[in-house]
Write a structure and sequence with these properties.
single chain, mainly alpha, 3 helices
Length: about 55
Amino acid sequence: MAPASLGVVVGALAPLPAHAADAITLPEPSGMVLFGIGVAGVWLGRRFSRGKTGD
């Protein structure tokens, strides 16, 4: 019984990628935005890794 129900589930889910192609497409972020996110990540990482001074 399990292999038959597995076949039904796989058969029902197989066409999903075809319908997913009709979804809303988002534009790719520009290189400068990605660079800015990277610089902000490095800055925040260095800031929080310093620890507290004056203790």
